[in-house]
Backbone:
């Protein structure tokens, strides 16, 4: 597939995982996330099924490149499936990874056995990341020798402790070397409006297979007003709500989230 990149991935295969013929689970993280955010979840799930967590392009340990539309992100996942001889997979995607998963299922339904979308809808959002990305870009990396330094400097601009610490997971700090960002800030800044405002093209054929959408009970990302749009594209969709969770239900309510996923995947 043209213009794809080879994604960094971590595979988890527990002693009681299904055999080689079973469709594996592929987990796709959200914006500013990485495969390692899902490591604990994948380890639990891998006791029943082979599970991979992927770094999407411009994130984690995957390559940096200028293009970053959802067709690019979905194409990379197809390339991963091809490279690993996976004919069909169960795809779990959160936020940006959820939109990537939706694009993948709509474009290549034969490659997706089951779709699980986490707290995102196939609609355009009005989030503005310009100031946030400007704060990250403006961080003076020459002053940073410890993560605590970055936390202090960024704390002046981002007062949300949970968000700030999440973002700083993307900062690579090695003794004797200048700190660097793992994420490709330039590409993300260039394409962030597409990433948050994108919705699938009108007239695209729906994905008819098993689809589940998990939303946080305290999140505003999946409103009931979006249900008709979701059902148009994913007519078999079933909705699940994780009580007490916001936009990161897998991190905020991990036990309830894992139980929900096990029920969906029948594990």
Residues:
């Amino acid at each position: 597939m043209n213009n794809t990149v080879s994604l960094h991935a971590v595979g988890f295969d527990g002693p009681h995982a299904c055999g080689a013929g079973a469709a594996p689970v592929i987990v796709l993280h959200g914006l500013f996330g990485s495969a390692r955010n899902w490591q604990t979840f994948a380890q639990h799930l891998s006791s029943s099924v082979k599970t991979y967590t992927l770094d999407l392009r411009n994130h984690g340990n995957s390559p940096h490149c200028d293009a970053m539309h959802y067709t690019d992100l979905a194409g990379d996942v197809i390339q991963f499936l091809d490279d690993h001889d996976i004919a069909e997979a169960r795809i779990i995607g959160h936020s940006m990874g959820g939109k990537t998963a939706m694009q993948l299922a709509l474009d290549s339904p034969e490659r997706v056995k089951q779709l699980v979308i986490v707290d995102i809808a196939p609609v355009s959002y009005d989030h503005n990341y310009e100031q946030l990305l400007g704060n990250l870009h403006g961080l003076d990396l020459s002053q940073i020798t410890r993560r605590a330094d970055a936390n202090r400097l960024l704390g002046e601009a981002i007062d949300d402790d949970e968000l700030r610490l999440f973002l700083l997971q993307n900062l690579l700090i090695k003794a004797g070397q200048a700190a660097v960002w793992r994420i490709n800030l330039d590409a993300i800044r260039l394409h962030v409006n597409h990433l948050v405002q994108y919705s699938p093209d009108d007239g695209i054929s729906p994905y008819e297979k098993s689809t589940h959408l998990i939303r946080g009970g305290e999140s505003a990302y999946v409103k009931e007003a979006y249900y008709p749009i979701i059902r148009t594209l994913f007519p078999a969709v079933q909705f699940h709500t994780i009580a007490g969770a916001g936009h990161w239900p897998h991190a905020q309510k991990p036990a309830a989230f894992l139980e929900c996923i096990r029920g969906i995947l029948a594990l």
